[in-house]
Amino acid sequence: MHTTKNNESENSIQLAYGRKVQELLSQSHADAWVDDLWQMYTGYVLLAQEAGHDPKSYNRFVSFKELVFFFQDVGKMAKC
């Protein structure tokens, strides 16, 4: 019984995540999000070059990369 409750809780969380993704994609499709992310990251890189060394730049790049991959994957799912 405890496992069933955990599964239900996990399912409800996944459904909530899905609703949030759907909400994001209702504003723009996945390809537009990828383009916007590239523009934001490019602006960040240009600013960072002017501002000097940023010890968190690698972590920001990894986060950016994961967001781009996420929206690319979502875009592929929408086309299926």
Radius of gyration: 17 Å
Mean pLDDT: 89
Described by the principal axes of the CA atoms, the overall outline is extended
DSSP helix count? 3
- Which structural class fits the helix and strand makeup? mainly alpha
Kindly give the count of domains: 1
Distance between the termini: 36 Å
Could you write a compact summary of the structure shown?
The protein is mainly alpha-helical.
Detailed description of the structure:
The protein has 80 residues and is mainly α. Helices cover 89% and strands 0% of the residues. The protein is built from 3 helices and no strands. The protein has helices spanning 2-27, 30-51, 57-79. The mean pLDDT is 89.
Give the SSE layout.
Elements: H1 2-27, H2 30-51, H3 57-79
Helix pairs in contact: 2-3
Highlighted features:
80 residues, mainly alpha
